[in-house]
Amino acid sequence: MSIERYRDRTRINHWIVVLLFLSAGLTGFSLFHPALFFLSSLFGGGTWSRILHPFFGLVTVIGFFFLFMQVWRDNVWNKGDSEWMRKSPLLLRGDEDAMPPVGKYNGAQKAIFWLFATCLVLLLVTGFTFWRPWFADAFPIPVRRLAVLIHSASAFILILGLIIHVYAAIWVKGSVQAMTQGRVSESWARRHHALWAKEVSGEK
Amino acid sequence: MSSLQSLDIAARSATTTATPHARSTMEVAKLIDVSSCIGCKACQVACMEWNDLRDEIGHNVGVYDNPADLSAQSWTVMRFSEVEMPTKDEGSRLEWLIRKDGCMHCADPGCLKACPAPGAIVKYDNGIVDFIQEHCIGCGNCLIGCPFNIPRFSKKDDKAYKCTLCSDRVSVGLEPACVKTCPTGAIRFGTKEDMHEFAAERITDLKERGFENAGVYDPEGVGGTHVMYVLQHADKPELYHGLPANPTISPMVSVWKGVTKPLAVAAMIGAAVLGFLHYVKVGPLNSDEEKDKEEV
Hints:
The structure holds two protein chains of two kinds. By secondary structure, chain A is an all-alpha fold. Chain A has helices spanning 8-32, 46-71, 79-92, 107-129, 141-171, 175-180, 186-192, 194-201; strands at 2-4, 183-185. Chain A starts with a strand and ends with a helix. By secondary structure, chain B is α+β, with helices and mostly antiparallel strands. Chain B is built from eight helices and eleven strands. Chain B has helices spanning 42-51, 110-114, 141-145, 167-170, 177-181, 192-208, 251-282, 288-295; strands at 9-12, 28-33, 77-86, 92-101, 121-124, 129-131, 152-153, 160-161, 187-191, 215-217, 227-231. Chain B has a four-stranded mixed beta sheet with strand order 9-2-11-10. In chain B, a hairpin with a 6-residue loop joins strand 7 (152-153) and strand 8. The radius of gyration of chain B is 25 Å and the shape is elongated. Chains A and B meet through helix 1, helix 2, helix 5 and helix 7 of A and helix 3, helix 7 and helix 8 of B.
């Protein structure tokens, strides 16, 4: 028996955001540090990376917005999440039995979700202030200095979150399949998201 | 404008290894004596002529500054400031301070520090800071990094431009075009040491004439500059069309570019490695069904 976790629409949306963010991230990386400048070759050189980056970024945010609208309700924080977070070091040691049962998303997943949303908003807003040649001239230089700093800092935090997000998907077996094929096994649901499993199977 | 074989490179943007730099030359400087400038703009014309630049014809905005600002086609602009200065008998008098604005060629260039494109900005061994436009990606970081608000973008090619201190002329032993043309000798060029000596003479002169605060402008905050001014009122450089008293690279640029970014890259790589090691140590989280499968 398997349970549907993500509808077609959600999965396609997720992977479109992945591809767009990958492009935005790689072009951004190439301008982040000289050691990563070689990544600009993937997009046709430094100038093309600079031209494309803001467009990739903008469509990533638009794509994420549609994803956000689909899943934000399931990511509202509740008391159980705080307790789960307190106990999360146990989970990191591999002791899932010690964890309180969770709904569709656990505390860490929710935290990552809100982190992504916050960072993307910061990236969007600050990015406009130094988007050459169209918007940058409208903002005073001190504003742009601060904006570049916030832009890179939020990208850095977003990517740390992303590493956690990707690792968790690899760590918790059956999760990648949930996002590629949309379905999870019943035992996966009971094991990792017991309250959600109950909910979808109609038990109360 | 271009990378010159006859000038060795002391620093290169977005480059973490040593620059080709086996030889070393004397540090040069341009000295602009504001007190001898008559505002004729011959330097602007010489700059246009040598560098083959033609700005659009602008509009009179009510001051003598023409063009009204630096641009990709105007690498130097005379800035006219009318100020009322107190006199010894407690009256005041009008002074016309005319400053030739343009790149200061900082020893510690904020533009170079902020630039993410390898080799798009270089500092030659003689101190000249040059934009190598064919490597410029048009991001605008140089403008953010510059403490003097100098670089300007061309609408034609989206690349940044500024005064080159006539690096092409200097590399073959000529003085910059503006120096060559200046009819009053207000602009001089030579080794930085010589320019300081010359400035000292001018300052003694000015002090004798009653300008007690005359001095040379070679700000420490950017490691000194390779364009220096003799100012009648060196205690108040802001009088000269907002010349900053203490220019420094904004900490938002220097700290972030200097220390934080390599650490951030290390942290991101570290996080990924940590994840991998965690997997090796703790192993995957399985649901029972998979455990069962494995046991079978």
